[in-house]
Amino acid sequence: MKKFFNEFKEFAVKGNMIDLAIGVMIGTAFSAVTNSIVKDIFMPFIGLLMNGIDFSALCYKIGEASINYGLLIQAVLNFIITAFVLFLTIKFIAKLKREPEKEEVKEEVKEPEIPEDIKLLTEIRDLLKKQ
User: What is the pTM of this model?
Assistant: First the structure.
């Protein structure tokens, strides 16, 4: 039984497991920020562009059953906007991380100098071709 708990302790305290847990917690906190940006900033503008249509209220009733296709439309829009916000955020962070690019001095590329014996052989070849 002691061996079992020691194995579990090694598994639970591994560096990768801790890193993963921290990543999940940061992701959860970041999702709250992203959801707020989508819900409180972007969706009101989209609502204005669409003349105040609330997609979440759209549904199709079949007897007592209700097919809420508006919720699907709303979820797809939320996904697209969230993905766009994440794209912009990652692009901004990458731009901040980039070091200022140093101007590289471009050197002129010189053709390698042909040795004298190769030049002579080339001339002989050209003369033989003419004959």
Answer: 0.46
